[in-house]
Write a structure and sequence with these properties.
Chain B: Pfam families: DUF2391 (PF09622). Chain B: Keywords: Membrane, Transmembrane, Transmembrane helix. The complex is a heterodimer. By secondary structure, chain A is α+β, with helices and mostly antiparallel strands. Chain A folds into two domains: 30 residues; 80 residues, Immunoglobulin-like, CATH 2.60.40.10. Chain A is 20% helix and 45% strand. Chain A is built from one helix and six strands, in the order αββββββ. The longest helix of chain A is centred in the N-terminal third of the chain and has 27 residues. Chain B is mainly alpha-helical. Chain B has two domains: 126 residues, no CATH class; 128 residues, no CATH class. In chain B, α10 packs parallel to α12. The chains are: A alpha+beta, B mainly alpha. Chains A and B meet through α1 of A and α2, α3, α4, α5 and α6 of B.
Chain lengths: 132, 282
């Protein structure tokens, strides 16, 4: 269809090497996605939060944590809530929001406290999310 | 093709290695030029893992015939055989994949400790605009001169195809953003009707003035004919492209028909300008 001066060009062997690479890339990507779709049916986000040891910072204490999504769908606006309790009494709470926690992925963050978490009962859990 | 003589087959040449690499270099430049705005848009990164795998598969498969069409109307070189077009398309995909991967890893948007699904998803999404850019590179930066392009006269369907690509050119940047939905929500029915009207007027004006410069839209056609055959049908093509892109990017989701319709109208505004200017842009 594209006309002009001179005859249309043929494909050189070198170009076919590049083309085969391109074919491999597109086939592998499609194959990966199809396989992933078949073997990982979408399940609700399943968030596991693992807090690290509290560390002293300039104004209080920091608890770093890793949140892992074991489910097969992404959690958007995921909140992570930390609280320090003594029996029934809540001493302090702290909260943070992740824009996204993709399926099977982990993200890390931190919660600041004024009180020393080591002297109370610390719990760090996932609050809630919305579907993207 | 039509001018091919019986001896025409002997006149076919294969490009030299140097010329081929120059073409690949242009393709890289085209991929970056076209895809960088999307490579630097966080909604596009998020789509890499929020989209269902089958949407990404549909997008990649829809990309192939689109690129085949572009190879016919632009592409790396003049081609007249299916397999030469296919080779061009696959080289463009290779270039797009490499360019997207390198840039996403340099931006630390993709890192090796992410799950494979997230990395592959992020790259796959970017391959769509990047390979279109790679394919367009020849016609934008190549040796093909303006007069050369004006000689070629695509058929009516070819003209509509180019309009669709022109619409895609502008709407791909906008479709994944939240603003498109926000604008649609802010607008009343009268805003939407006015925007649709303005889209048609601008599109017609551009089609008419650009059309005079070359292509099948000649000056000897009547106003009504150009309006009916190019502006109106063109707008339908633009609206379908907008709908398709919105659907692939899951922007239509759980929205009502009215919401989808108004989002399509908003997106068709830049799309209509892109479509009408396709002959200038592409």
């Amino acid at each position: 269809m594209a006309e002009g001066s001179g005859p249309p060009e043929r494909t050189s062997a070198l170009e076919w090497v590049f083309a085969l690479l391109g074919a491999a890339i597109i086939a592998a990507t499609v194959g990966f996605m199809v396989r992933h779709g078949l073997t990982h049916p979408a399940t609700a986000p399943d968030v596991v939060v693992v807090p690290g040891p509290p560390t002293r910072v300039s104004q209080g204490y920091l608890v770093q944590f890793t949140a892992l999504n074991r489910g097969n769908s992404t959690a958007a606006n995921l909140t992570i809530k930390g609280s320090l309790t003594d029996g029934d009494r809540t001493i302090e709470t702290s909260e943070v929001t992740f824009d996204y926690l993709p399926q099977r992925a982990s993200r890390s963050g931190g919660l600041f406290f004024r009180e020393d978490p080591a002297r109370h009962k610390l719990s760090v859990t996932a609050g809630g999310y919305v579907t993207p | 093709m039509s001018s091919a003589t019986p001896a025409g087959a002997d006149r076919h040449s294969t490009p030299s290695t140097g010329k081929f690499f120059a073409g690949v270099g242009r393709a890289f430049a085209g991929a970056l030029l076209f895809a960088l705005p999307m490579l630097m848009t966080m909604e596009m990164w998020w789509l890499g893992f929020t989209l269902e795998p089958w949407r990404i598969v549909v997008m990649l498969l829809a990309m192939l015939p689109l690129l085949m069409g572009l190879s016919r109307f632009g592409g790396f070189r003049r081609t007249d055989r299916f397999r030469d077009d296919l080779a061009d398309v696959l080289v463009a995909i290779m270039v797009a994949a490499v360019a997207s991967t390198v840039v996403l890893f340099l931006f630390a948007v993709a890192t090796i400790d992410m799950p494979p699904r997230e990395i592959v998803g992020k790259i796959a999404i970017q391959m769509f605009p990047a390979s279109i850019g790679a394919m367009l590179a020849r016609s934008q930066m190549g040796e093909t001169s303006e007069s050369d392009r004006e000689e070629s006269e695509p058929s009516y369907l070819g003209e509509l195809f180019l309009m669709g690509v022109g619409a895609l050119y502008l709407s791909l940047n906008i479709a994944p953003t939240e603003e498109i939905v926000l604008i649609a929500l802010k607008m009343s029915v009268w805003h939407e009707v006015s925007l649709l009207g303005l889209s048609l007027v601008l599109m017609h004006g551009l089609v008419y003035s650009v059309g005079f410069k070359g292509g099948t839209i000649r000056g000897d056609r009547s106003f009504i004919e150009v309006f009916a055959r190019f502006t109106c049908v063109g707008y339908v093509v633009v609206a379908l492209v907008s709908l398709g892109v919105l659907w692939i990017f899951a922007q239509t989701g759980e929205s009502s028909l009215q919401e989808v319709l108004s989002t399509v109208i908003v997106m068709s505004f830049p799309g209509a300008i892109g479509a009408a200017a396709a002959r200038l842009v592409l």
